[in-house]
Amino acid sequence: MDSTLPQAASAARRRKRLTNRIKDGLRDLSVQLALLNHQVGSHLDLRDTDLECLDLISRHGPIGPTALARRGGLHPATLTGVLDRLERGGWVVRTPNPSDRRAVLVQIIREKEAEVALMFSGLSSAMESVCAEYDDADLLKIADFLLRTARASRIATDQLAES
């Protein structure tokens, strides 16, 4: 009997357990971040979708409404309502697009961006502590893993949207 077969089966089981732990951890993280976002939104009197759009505008803005709708996976009519609420609340401004005078760009108001950042400061500080426990090589692997996981999630989202 080949002694490598039990070792290979054991390694495969271990690999499956580790992969499942990562998947479970990502699910837990997803839930916790959703709960945190909901709490932040409640404190700022923003709906969850409004807060998500603010984050996208902060990271990718100034941005056109069509591009924002695509990035946020929102129907354009839904996005119009979100932008109207955000503008009324003083969170964003719509300005003419200098490269297309028929279009507008949406950008976040910097003081409001700081207000949102303050609400996430507890998580930010905790993440600094967590990251301090890893060396640079580990952080590079973690960052790569998260980017690749986000990409896989975008692909799965796009596939569901198309079906």
Provide an overview of this structure.
- Helix 1 (4-44) packs across helix 2 (48-60).
- The relative contact order is 0.08.
- The chain has one domain: Arc Repressor Mutant, subunit A (Orthogonal Bundle), CATH 1.10.10.
- The protein is mainly alpha-helical and 163 residues long.
- 76% of the residues lie in helices and 9% in strands.
- The protein is built from 7 helices and 2 strands, in the order ααααββααα.
- Strand 1 (92-97) and strand 2 (100-108) form a beta hairpin.
- The N and C termini lie far apart (49 Å).
- Strands 1-2 form a two-stranded antiparallel ribbon.
- It has helices spanning 4-44, 48-60, 65-72, 76-88, 110-119, 121-132, 136-162; strands at residues 92-97, 100-108.
Count of the separate structural domains: 1
Beta-strand percent range: 5-15%
Number of strands: 2
Judging by the overall fold, what is the CATH architecture?
Orthogonal Bundle
Spans where pLDDT lies below 50 across 5 or more residues: none
Order of helical and strand elements: HHHHEEHHH
- Number of helices, counting only DSSP H or I runs of 4 residues or more: 7
Average pLDDT, all residues: 93
Largest sheet: 2 strands, antiparallel
CATH topology title: Arc Repressor Mutant, subunit A
In which range does the helix fraction lie? over 70%
The CATH C-level class name: Mainly Alpha
CATH level 4 superfamily: Winged helix-like DNA-binding domain superfamily/Winged helix DNA-binding domain
Q: What Rg, in angstroms, do the CA atoms define? A: 21 Å
The helix-and-strand class reads mainly alpha
